[in-house]
Amino acid sequence: IRDIGVTGVQTCALPIWPTYASSYVVKTTGLKTRSQYMLYVGIGIGIGYGLGPLAGLVVEVVCGAANWNAPALDSSTAPGWVMVVLYALEFLFIGAQMVEPPKLKPKPSGGGGGPPPTLPYARLAVCYAIVFVVPFNVGMWDVAFVFMGVGSWGWSIEITALALGLIELAVVPVNLLPIAKHLTDRNGIVAFLALLLLAPICFVDYPHESQYAVFLWIIGAFLLLIAAGETKGFVFGLVSKMPPVPPKVSLDEARAGEDGT
Q: What is the spatial distance between Cα 219 and Cα 112, in angstroms, rounded to a whole number?
């Protein structure tokens, strides 16, 4: 069941995968609105993660009710066929509706013909590290939630899948809030990284009854998923706005450029 949920971003977050969606946002929005639209990409991601477990549950129930045991279609291969259908619909939608933005012509460099600017590798490395760590932690929480639901709280795998999907879907509306209008990219990253640090407090093994543990885990899940989505959105926006690093020019080269020699 969780196999569908893991690929929910790719199969349910139509029209395009998050990476390409972010690239498309960069090419079609200005600097003032880009971060907010990057956060909107999180809506598709959240819907995909939320509908993934629910779709997996439906596929499992349908296969069991229909008693499908054909070599090419049974409870093991049905999720793969669902993915094929969704990918095909995605392919048709992109071909019919998506328009590639025109490529911008590079601006002519100033006189002197010096070395071109370079990418800000150090700053990009920090952003990429955040993009790695955030989903890494969310993935660990997904697995831990399943183990807690089935092993500690006595839930069935079906109930656990439903709970995962509903929690993911409940977080989606937060991405509609105009947070980027009130926070810069850097401040947004710092604020929601701080929230990511607070969320695991709810996952500590407190000596409470099971119902309190479930309540704390759900609260922690909301904090974790909200902070994860917002952090990634602000990071993607910041990466797309980073100016290149100007080349280092020696004093002799600078004087030569001023003299036109």
A: 59
Q: How many Å apart are CA 177 and CA 165, to the nearest integer?
A: 21
Nearest Cα neighbor of 79 from 94, 62, 93 is 62
Per-residue pLDDT 10s for the chain (261 aa) are 434 433 444 444 444 455 666 777 777 777 777 777 777 777 777 777 778 777 777 877 787 777 777 777 776 777 778 888 888 887 888 778 777 767 666 555 554 555 566 667 777 788 888 878 888 888 888 888 888 888 888 888 878 888 888 888 888 887 778 888 888 888 988 999 899 888 888 887 766 556 678 888 888 888 888 888 888 888 888 877 776 666 555 545 444 544 454
Tell me which amino acid residue 7 is: T
Which residues are registered as beta bridge partners of 73?
Answer: 70
DSSP of 102-121: PPPPPPPPPTT--PPPB--H
Between CA 34 and CA 28 the distance in angstroms is 9
Show the tokens assigned to 14.
């139509």
Q: How far apart are CA 189 and CA 195, in angstroms?
A: 10
Which tokens hold the place of 145? 């939630």
Alpha-carbon Rg for the chain in angstroms: 23
In which residue are the tokens 């006189």 written?
111
3-state secondary structure of 51: helix
Distance CA 195, CA 25 (A): 26
Using DSSP's 3-state secondary structure scheme, residue 209 falls into coil
> Which distant-in-sequence residues (6+ apart) come within 8 Å of 43 by Cβ?
172, 175, 176
